[in-house]
Amino acid sequence: MRASLLPDVVRRDAFAEASRFRGEFCECPTARRDAFFELTDAVLCADGAETPVDLTLLVEHRCGQGAMCGGLNHGRIDVDRLRTVLAACRGRGSTAGAWS
Fold this sequence. Notes:
The protein has helices at residues 8-26, 33-45, 52-56, 65-74, 79-91; strands at residues 29-31, 76-77. The chain is mainly alpha-helical. InterPro entries: IS701-like_DDE_dom.
């Protein structure tokens, strides 16, 4: 007996969409990608972190405080690419209007 209420194809499609977004998102930082990705992961998982230093204490942020500072001080993001990635994600699937 299967525990999931979703058909396999729906779960597979959702996983493929999340993987595609992650791959496209990881290409947006042009410097210090690792630090930006760790910070983003920590922000998305944070429950009440008030400062960037608080984020470094989360399990999801596997780098230290030095990497976080380096990412914030010396990192770069291709903003146009990020905007395109987010817009494409918003326009796909059944959650198209979820961010408005």
